[in-house]
Each structure stands twice: as C-alpha cells, then as structure tokens.
Amino acid sequence: MPDWGVGLAIACGVLIAASAFGLLRRRRDGQMHPVTAADGDQPAHPPISLTDLGVRPGVPATLLQFSSAFCAPCRATRRICAEVATLLQGVDHVEVDAESHLEAVRALDIRRTPTVLVIDAAGRIVRRATGQPTKAQVIAAVAPLLTAHDSVNSDKRTVSRGRSSC
Hints:
By secondary structure, the protein is an alpha+beta fold. It has helices at 3-28, 72-87, 102-107, 135-164; strands at residues 33-34, 61-67, 91-97, 115-120, 125-130. The chain is 47% helix and 17% strand. The chain has a five-stranded mixed sheet. The termini are far apart.
C-alpha cells in the first residue's frame, strides 16, 4: 500500500472513532443516573456537608448544580433548574461555582460542568446528571421525591385526624 494510503486509512479510522465518541456522549449527556451507596441499595450519603453549599435540610428535592464561569451549557442548565424549582413546590435550586468550592468538587467527584445532583429530604444524593439535562429529565428525576414526600405528609395528616377525633 502506498504511503498516502496508510495515512488515509489512519485518518478515516480517527474520524470514525471521534464520531462514535461524539454520538455516545451526546446520547448520555444530561441524563439523570441513579446514585447508590457502596452496598448498592440505598441512595448515597455525601462525604461532605451539603449545608455548607446552601442545601437546606428537609426540602423534598434540591437540585445542586455545579457550574463554571465560562460554561455555556451551565447557563442553560441554570435556567432549566430554576424553572423546575419555580414550577414544582418542594424543589430548591442551588448553584455552586465549581472553581470556588474545589474541596466539594473533589469530594463529590464532579468531573465537568454542568453537573446536577438531586438531593432528597434526608440529604442523600439520589440522582446525578453530567451535562445539560432537559426540563423533562429534571422533572422526572424529582417527581418520585415529591410523591414520596406528599405520601408521608398525607399519612401524618391522617394520623393526626384520627387522634383528634378520639
């Protein structure tokens, strides 16, 4: 094979590999993935205090977003998370500058921005998205937490009503 043929074959191989990587990354970008502890059953308790980052304990669902200053997808993710927090009662959105909180970035294994962590009322990380999620993906990620919170509150109301009627 002539020298130009080897170069052409290598160039084609690199283009195919890069295209496959790009398609795979686009497909996975922004998807909410479940997070479990080492035993694989329960959601993971974070290795650091999330209250230091602005997460309020007891809120049914908190969207903790790690961003950086010159990240275009971070701005779009901020808008999406803020809209969901406004739309759904019981959802908070907290944005953290990754560069200003390097210890938290390392402890939570934040590898790129934007990264969104979904935190439940107990302070556990239940879902995680790297890249820009869609509004539908964010709503789908927080919905089970809101449903669980509503059922716990309705159980408490039922018990209190039962006690008051005695």
